[in-house]
Amino acid sequence: MKEINQRRLRYFHEVYTCGKIRGAAANLNTDTSVVTRQIRLLEEEVGAKLFERRPRGVAPTEAAELLQKYYQVCYTLRQNLEAGLQELRGMKRGMINIIVLKAYSEILVEDVLHDFCMERSGLNICIKEASTADQIVAAVVADEAHMGIMSHYSFNDPKIKYSVRVPLPICLVVSCNHPLASQKKVTFLEAARYPLALPSAASNLWSVIREAERSENVQLAPVFVSDSISSRKKFSSIGEGGTFMSALAARQEIKAGQLVAVEVDHPSFKSFQFCLAVKQGKPFPPAANQLLRVLEAKLLVCAHAAKDLSVH
Q1: Is this prediction's pTM over 0.90?
Q2: What is the CATH number of the domain that holds 148?
Q3: How many CB atoms lie within 10 A of CB 88?
Q4: Are residues 150 and 202 in the same domain?
Q5: Are 211 and 256 in contact (CB under 8 A)?
Q6: How many CB atoms are located within 10 Å of the residue 188 CB?
Q7: Whether the Cβ atoms of residue 67 and residue 60 lie closer than 8 Å to each other
Q8: Any residues with CB less than 8 A from the CB of 86 and at least 6 apart, and which?
Q9: Residue spans of alpha helices (H) in 90-155
Q10: Is the pLDDT of residue 198 over 90?
């Protein structure tokens, strides 16, 4: 077998992960024809077909499964090499990859990264946003991110270590003029009587809402469904609309007096936690290790501050 071209291996990994040529091309910021050609050349190098075409994308062959394992080994070795070299160079240079739920990206930049980056101008910190906690866990496990920041309710992956894990209840977020705004606590049934904007079924919050619906024997009829945090907050600021999210996700609007977070008195809504996730046993370069310590302290402060935002 010929020596495997590392650039083509990266193209292969994107196709393997996405399951689609078009999705891989978008992630790589190139044309689908380029990705298709690179995969074809890689198949010539390894001497085996890597993907089978399907109606909605491509499926990996057995050869592709072997090649993906090879990629992961190579990636881990490269990460370990970079970590060792950065140990020699100190903490002034390098790349740190962070994946974060969209609701918390502003908090990350505002409360943590600005000062950290100003003190280490040679560092390159890459932030990628995700829509669900499952996407974040997958990225951390696959070594595509050093750490992930999310709210979550289920902790099942043994490959993940939660460096921070603190309660982050889901609240009913409404305008200051909403009929329920003056209450410190509402029931799920009380919230259901008013127009609601809800996240899609892809959201982790969806499972919590469905669990509450089943326990209360009620089915919500949302005015609209969106995974856009800003759209749902905007809806909540108008009239008697409301949405479910953590007070932390709406903290700027709450501090500005535009929105109010009301506690929902239901066990499902208290099951969410604010998490900082890293891969179990993964070696970190010094800069990433220091950033992890800073994040641990800052995120704990943010989570505790969220409690005050929902008390009015």
Answers
A1: no
A2: 3.40.190.10
A3: 7
A4: no
A5: no
A6: 20
A7: no
A8: 93, 94, 285, 286, 287
A9: 105-108, 114-119, 133-141
A10: yes
